[in-house]
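[Discussion] Sanity-checking designs against the backbone

I'm trying to build intuition for which residues belong where. Below is a structure token string of 476 positions. I'd appreciate it if someone posts a full sequence so I can compare it with mine line by line.
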């Protein structure tokens, strides 16, 4: 007699209908009431067909649940996460170029200059500014390592990126020339605090279609709490008019804001409305501060709970706008919806050390921009190439299969243990899963699943945009 058991899944409801998120496959299914009742019963305990009341409908439900692998025979071995390491050389899709490790602001919570910094950017061995030659070497490295990908991505970063604007300009010209010789294209973006957005800078960014993300925390009293100049003066009055000029002139690509959330009174919706309605940003993304737990600006457990509640409110505002085919710029929910739609199931939390690498001012190659300049996280140089042994050792030791704390978590397909830099800052070890925000990740994933289900029922055409994104992605 066959005894059936539920396989790993997360049940949620949307638009008054039951859905399941199947963890091993990262697939999402709407199920009918009979299938829902059967799955609930099997989740309580394994049962035979004779234990399940009902007629033909139950048989059909069992067959469908078995087809999508929501259930299986009780004695069948549970599927384990295969430890598959990508074949080297894996094509580089994004290079983050740290053109300077200096900044004209003195933000208390900064992971580069505050108490949590990994690299000594003041007295360390790296030059404070990347040279034009190192930038050229970096471009050649990127184009070589991009393999057969027709498009390579360069993100300029800092410190404050625009402190080295001349090298940024020269790099874009050189990258376009070299890419054209190879039959490729290069897409450019940068992150800036906005203080150096002079008219000539704005004109160059607009003419060259450079994507721009502005680090800004919100209205004046929020921005000026942490994002201050070295003399302690707040930066809001300096950056707000400059950002508005950028938005007025640079219309070829959406300009996004990136907000860092810290301890204290939090008002996500107010920050969002200020940045979109009063400043004019197209998109706003939020992230909790990366810091050791004993810092005054660190989020407490209650702070993560509060952030989730406020994210949920703004996400439902996003939902109602999307149902009506109106734009809403809460990028956190849109990015998660895209991953859900694509069926993303990550062996690693991000592309760091794989399809994304960071380059320090001296040309050392690191896991990502946050580790640029760190000898402990070095994966080669732009002149000598990627150290494949170091890269493979990193990927071997950081695979989700080795994170036992994650093995039973239903949200692991999207999280995979979380940010390496967050783990290093919090626990001193990039291999550690970020257990301090597990509840937050599960809560947020559940919110986004619900939004996804609502859209699948109420406006499925909205989700078609993610099909287009998937078609553009390089095959790996």
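Best answer:
Here's mine. Compare freely.
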């Amino acid at each position: 007699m066959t005894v059936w058991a539920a396989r790993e899944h997360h049940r949620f409801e949307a638009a008054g209908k039951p859905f399941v998120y199947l963890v091993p496959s990262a697939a999402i299914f709407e199920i009918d009431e009979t299938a829902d009742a059967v799955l609930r019963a099997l989740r309580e305990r394994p049962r035979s067909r004779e234990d399940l009341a009902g007629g033909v409908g139950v048989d059909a439900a069992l067959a469908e649940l078995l087809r999508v692998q929501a259930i299986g025979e009780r004695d069948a071995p549970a599927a384990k996460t295969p430890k598959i390491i990508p074949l080297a050389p894996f094509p580089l899709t994004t290079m983050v170029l740290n053109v300077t490790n200096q900044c004209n602001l003195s933000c208390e919570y900064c992971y580069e200059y505050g108490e949590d910094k990994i690299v000594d950017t003041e007295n360390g061995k790296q030059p404070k500014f990347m040279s034009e030659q190192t930038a050229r070497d970096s471009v050649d490295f990127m184009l070589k390592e991009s393999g057969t990908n027709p498009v390579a991505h360069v993100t300029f970063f800092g410190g404050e990126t625009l402190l080295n604007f001349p090298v940024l300009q020269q790099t874009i010209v050189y990258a376009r020339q070299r890419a054209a010789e190879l039959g490729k294209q290069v897409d450019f973006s940068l992150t800036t605090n906005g203080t150096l957005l002079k008219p000539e800078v704005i004109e160059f960014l607009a003419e060259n279609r450079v994507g721009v993300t502005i680090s800004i925390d919100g209205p004046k009293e929020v921005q000026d709490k942490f994002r201050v100049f070295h003399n302690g003066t707040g930066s809001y009055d300096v950056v707000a008019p400059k950002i508005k000029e950028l938005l007025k002139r640079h219309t070829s690509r959406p300009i996004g804001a990136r907000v860092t959330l810290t301890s204290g009174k939090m008002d996500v919706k107010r920050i969002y409305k200020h940045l979109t309605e009063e400043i004019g940003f197209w998109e706003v993304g939020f992230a909790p501060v990366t810091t050791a737990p004993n810092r005054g600006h660190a989020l407490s457990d209650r702070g993560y709970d509060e952030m989730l509640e406020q994210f949920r409110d703004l996400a439902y505002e996003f939902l109602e706008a999307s149902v009506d085919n109106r734009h809403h710029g809460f990028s956190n929910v849109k990015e998660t919806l895209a991953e859900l739609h694509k069926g993303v199931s990550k062996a690693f939390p991000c592309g760091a050390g794989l399809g994304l690498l960071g380059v320090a001012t001296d040309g050392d190659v690191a896991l990502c921009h946050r580790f640029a300049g760190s000898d402990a996280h070095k994966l080669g140089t732009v002149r000598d190439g990627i150290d494949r042994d170091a890269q493979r050792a990193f990927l071997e030791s950081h695979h989700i299969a080795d994170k036992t704390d994650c093995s039973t978590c239903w949200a692991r397909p999207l999280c995979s243990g979380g940010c390496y830099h967050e783990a290093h800052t919090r626990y001193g070890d990039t291999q550690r899963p970020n257990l301090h925000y597990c509840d937050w990740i599960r809560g947020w994933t559940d919110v986004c699943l619900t939004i996804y289900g609502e859209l699948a029922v109420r406006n499925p055409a909205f989700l078609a945009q993610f099909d287009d994104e998937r078609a553009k992605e390089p095959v790996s």
